[in-house]
Amino acid sequence: MKKVNVAILGVMGSVGTEILKVLEERKFPVDNLKLLASKKYAGREIIWNSLKYVVEEVTKDSFDDVDILLSAVPSEASKIYTPIAVEKGVVVIDNSSAYRYDENVPLVIPEINPEDVETHEGIIANPNCSTIIALLPLSEINKLSLIKRIIASTYQAASGAGNKGMEELERQTKDYANEKELEVKAFHHQILHNVIPQVDNFTENGYTKEEMKMVNESRKILHNKNINISCTSVRVPVLRSHSVSMIVETEDDVSVEKAKELLSKSKGIKIVDDIERNIYPMPKDSSNQDLVFVGRIRKDLSGNGLNLWCCGDQIRKGAATNAVQIAELLVSSSNESSDRSC
Amino acid sequence: MKKVNVAILGVMGSVGTEILKVLEERKFPVDNLKLLASKKYAGREIIWNSLKYVVEEVTKDSFDDVDILLSAVPSEASKIYTPIAVEKGVVVIDNSSAYRYDENVPLVIPEINPEDVETHEGIIANPNCSTIIALLPLSEINKLSLIKRIIASTYQAASGAGNKGMEELERQTKDYANEKELEVKAFHHQILHNVIPQVDNFTENGYTKEEMKMVNESRKILHNKNINISCTSVRVPVLRSHSVSMIVETEDDVSVEKAKELLSKSKGIKIVDDIERNIYPMPKDSSNQDLVFVGRIRKDLSGNGLNLWCCGDQIRKGAATNAVQIAELLVSSSNESSDRSC
Predict the structure, then answer these.
(1) Least CB-CB distance to B178: which of A177, A192, A283?
(2) Is A129 annotated in the active site?
(3) Mind giving me the DSSP string for A85-142?
């Protein structure tokens, strides 16, 4: 396999750190590796694949000789550096929401719409974490019968706010145990022993940006603008795995048996659904691995749909792993056709 | 107001303890008070309203001279003592699910169906905690247009498993902070930093008993067997307030404005919905008080219904306060008509 020059932007963040791990685990064919971050991290040393790397401050000159940039910085920073990198011929896999709705930017979950990678013009967007986790099982059901409606309520981990989110839950846990006052910085409110029905900022229709990502990104990834979607996104005191409670309605009824049969063979999914032994997906079990766990699969008692529950690691399949899988698609596509730059 | 002889069965449990508090706070007209519990608690002293009471072991002879029994024991124990008390002419307000579906047992939320109290034949059932919290706002929307469908996902506190549930979350919090192994006893799985998509046991249709309570009890309380209801009940690491994410569909569309206008005047409800200032109901804020907080009120983007989020204290409005309110209805009805025993 052809080796490529890879850069990671935001390498000191929770997703950047995990991208490094995933590249190593999946033996991604890295030729040169460049670790980029903001000025304050410049000079830090990181061991990757038994070699020492030094973190560099990102500048407009950081992208020479880079083939693929895995960008794990917020939208504002992505909007600065992505165009510079694209201008230099780099393919950017962007973890932020900056370009997700651009018509010429494919939004890709490799198990679902890998072919969309081919249409890129320099940028490929990595979808929202909850959307990736929810769509992995839903896209399979969509194969049995077209989805008409999705109703979701999420249970999102502190990791969605990055390292500072996880650190805040850890710190509040310790401060509570030591009867200290709880400090609130990463979230709008205390997260320990609480749930917060707000993830990201509110939009004009009363939904949060996070809830609207589930709506708009699901439609784009499934190539169906007619799916009706409603979501309530809630932060819960869990470290790094998101859960979603969903009802899905399809054009024709899908039986529980058919759904389970298909999901049991689907890539990236593990059915965890043995209620007689009180076994079902839980964030505690789905953390630090790549599969989306699906369970509590049952007929929706209020309509003709299916009711299901899934959990997945927000930092891995919800971000880092999905981004590296997109990079793998680029490399294999570039190997298949030597005319096409990755 | 006529004073009545009150007994509390299960007075050492989380709900029993709270019933005592609520009786005092609401100045319930208690003549004699009898505190009943299992043998192991007999002889314990409790101060109530500045007087000392001694907990007695419950026996078949415990109910002489009792007018109202507030029973806060599990179904198995209720099935033993409720018939004995009724036989002696006591009116039993039962917090368990033992009699909730009996045709001659009214299931009452005083703000919603107070008139049903009149039909009792000795037993009045106190509804399931999540159902009380969800129905308080839903019953108001039902006044604007008949509810056709309810889709709910719950975020239920540890208190639903009683004192041992709350103690387990507290203990796991401290053990985690002290890097000790977490002991799992009250729940099927670790509750700290986790969510568990199971509350109560599973039934044959793949739903839990807790989920089916929301279905069957909502229909009984709203006197409408045709409402389609689907629920996913999830335990979250919160101490004592339940939250519910809901979509409600009605025969005619109900606007957000109309719903807010009515809810703002409704008994037992507080609208907490100022998203511009990141204010919405949270279990941290709705604990240790009686109102159900309602917010995130918005049009369901996937259909014609409303999407809303509510939180309420599981031990208070979800159990103890509702039971005492039922007792108040009995006393006031008995005062209105001296022919009718309370």
Answers:
(1) A177
(2) yes
(3) HHHTTPEEEE-SSTTTT-TTS-B--TTT-GGGGGG-SSEEEPPPHHHHHHHHHHHHHH
- pLDDT tens-digit profile of A81-130? 999 999 999 999 999 999 999 999 999 999 999 999 999 999 999 999 99
Inter-chain residue contact A284 with B176, CB threshold 8 Å: no
Note whether B137 and B270 are within 8 A (CB): no
Beta strands per DSSP E along chain A: 4-9, 30-37, 45-48, 51-54, 56-57, 68-71, 91-94, 123-125, 147-155, 228-232, 241-250, 269-271, 292-299, 306-313
Question: Which are the contacts of B70, defined by CB distance < 8 A and separation ≥ 6?
Answer: B6, B7, B8, B9, B19, B93, B95, B323, B324, B327
What is the model's pTM? 0.96
pLDDT score of B333: 80
pLDDT digits (tens, 9 = 90+) for B249-301: 999 999 999 999 999 999 999 999 999 999 999 999 999 999 999 999 999 99
Does B302 contact A149 at a Cβ distance shorter than 8 Å?
yes
Mutation pick from B166, B226, B236 vs chain A, by most beta carbons of A within 10 Å, is B236
Q: In what order do the strands lie in the sheet containing B241-250? A: B228-232, B147-155, B241-250, B306-313, B292-299, B269-271
Question: What is the tens place of the pLDDT at every residue in B42-57?
Answer: 999 999 999 999 999 9
Would you call B245 and A197 a contact, using CB atoms and an 8 Å cutoff? yes
Q: Closest-CA residue in chain A for B200? A: A278
Residues A107 and A248: their CA atoms lie apart, in Å, by: 22
Query: Which among A150, A178, A190 has CB closest to B302?
Result: A150
The reported pLDDT for the residue numbered B164 is: 97
Q: What is the band of A334 on the pLDDT scale with cuts at 50, 70, 90?
A: confident
**Residue B184 contacts A where some CB pair is shorter than 8 Å:** no
Q: Output phi, psi for A41, to 5 deg.
A: -100, -5
- Cα–Cα dist A306/A293, whole Å: 16
Residues 6+ apart with CB under 8 A from B95: B10, B15, B70, B71, B72, B73, B78, B126, B319, B323
The partner residue sitting opposite A245, judged by closest CB among B215, B234, B282, is: B234
Asked if B309 lies within 8 A of A229 by C-beta distance, the reply is: no
Residue B319 to chain A, least CA–CA distance (Å): 20
List the structure tokens of A102: 């651009």
Distances (CA, A) of B238 to A167, A290, B161, B308: 19, 28, 12, 20
Indicate if the pLDDT at residue B336 is higher than 70: no
Q: Are B193 and A169 in contact (CB < 8 Å)?
A: yes
Give the three-state DSSP class for B295. Answer: strand
If we measure between CA atoms, which residue out of A308, A291, A272 comes closest to residue A151?
Answer: A308
Tell me: the pLDDT tens digits for A123-160?
999 999 999 999 999 999 999 999 999 999 999 999 99
Does B195 touch chain A if contact means CB atoms closer than 8 Å?
yes
Q: Are A8 and A35 in contact (CB under 8 A)?
A: yes
pLDDT of residue A338: 46
